[in-house]
């Protein structure tokens, strides 16, 4: 079985590539994909570039072109739930698009006909994450992740996302990846380590902590691989 490991930015997959003794580089659909074998597991690794469109393209390519049968996303997020501090891990139980808005036609935020507000992540992969957390003596919070094409750095926008979706963290790719995986019947898992709290100083915090938080997330994902049936 081939497993996809995805990030949005180079820094989110660099710690994964670093752990591999060798990999093959393939250019496809205006992006670079890395094929490797890790402890007997076939991997396809890529960063999509930021946002819902690029992440949709990459997730779809990993499944439909490269034949991946499970997808793990590793990266960073802005924390909303005050219990989440910089470097803390959050596992998405379900995700939504906070900027999908046809409320003008009486629909709820995040909903379009034919779709659903929330997309649920794979329960088995979440159980594996809990197992890994136990092994490492680490706390990993489960929660709702809100995705949108916007770097949020405003308490009011954050409050609005909580009001509509009761989200715990926000980022820019998870829900679109989830929708692709759900539609193609591929189990998916979204892990994020907190880089900022999406307030006025979020961009400074992001610049300071993005790389270290990306490493925390990537290392956890690599530990999960050993427990995934392949
Ligand atoms: N990823 C990390 N921090 C973020 C933020 N504040 N907004 C959107 N995506 C993020």
Number of helices: 6
Please bin the fraction of helical residues. 25-40%
What ligands does this structure carry? adenine
Question: How many β strands by DSSP?
Answer: 10
Portion in beta strands: 25-35%
Counting structural domains, the number is 1
Outline: globular
Q: Quickly give the structural class.
A: alpha/beta
Task: Output mean pLDDT.
Answer: 97
**Assigned CATH superfamily:** Nucleoside phosphorylase domain
Keywords for this structure?
single chain, 230 residues, Rossmann fold, 5-stranded mixed β-barrel, 30% strand
Write the layout of secondary structure elements.
Layout: E1 2-7, H1 10-18, E2 24-28, E3 31-38, E4 41-47, H2 52-64, E5 70-79, E6 89-97, E7 118-120, H3 123-136, E8 140-147, H4 155-165, E9 169-171, H5 174-183, E10 188-196, H6 202-225
Parallel strand pairs: 1-4, 1-5, 5-10, 6-8, 8-9
Antiparallel strand pairs: 2-3, 3-4, 5-9, 6-7, 6-10
Helix pairs in contact: 1-6, 2-5, 3-6
Bound molecules: adenine.
Structure description:
The chain has helices spanning 10-18, 52-64, 123-136, 155-165, 174-183, 202-225; strands at residues 2-7, 24-28, 31-38, 41-47, 70-79, 89-97, 118-120, 140-147, 169-171, 188-196. The chain has 230 residues and is α/β, with parallel strands linked by helices. It has one domain (2-225): Nucleoside phosphorylase domain (Rossmann fold, 3-Layer(aba) Sandwich). Helix 2 packs parallel to helix 5. The longest helix has 24 residues, at 202-225. The chain binds adenine.
């Amino acid at each position: 079985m081939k497993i996809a490991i995805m990030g949005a930015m180079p820094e989110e997959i660099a710690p994964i590539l670093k752990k591999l003794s060798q990999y093959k580089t393939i250019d496809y659909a205006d992006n670079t994909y890395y094929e490797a074998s890790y402890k007997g597991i076939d991997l396809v690794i890529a960063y999509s570039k930021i946002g819902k469109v690029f992440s949709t393209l990459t997730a779809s390519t990993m499944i439909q072109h490269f034949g991946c049968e499970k997808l793990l996303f590793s990266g960073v997020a802005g924390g909303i739930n005050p219990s989440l501090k910089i470097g803390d891990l959050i596992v998405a139980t379900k995700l939504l698009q906070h900027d999908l808005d046809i409320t003008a036609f009486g629909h709820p935020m995040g909903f379009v006909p034919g779709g659903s507000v929330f997309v649920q992540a794979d329960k088995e992969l979440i159980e594996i994450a809990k197992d890994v957390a136990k092994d490492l003596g680490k706390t990993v919070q489960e929660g709702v992740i809100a995705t949108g094409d916007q770097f949020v750095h405003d308490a009011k926008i954050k409050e609005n996302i909580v009001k509509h979706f009761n989200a715990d963290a926000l980022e820019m790719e998870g829900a679109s990846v989830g929708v692709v995986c759900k539609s193609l019947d591929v189990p998916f898992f979204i892990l994020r380590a907190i880089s900022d709290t999406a307030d006025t100083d979020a961009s400074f915090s992001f610049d300071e902590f993005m790389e270290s938080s990306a490493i925390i997330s990537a290392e956890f994902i690599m530990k999960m691989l050993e427990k995934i049936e392949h």
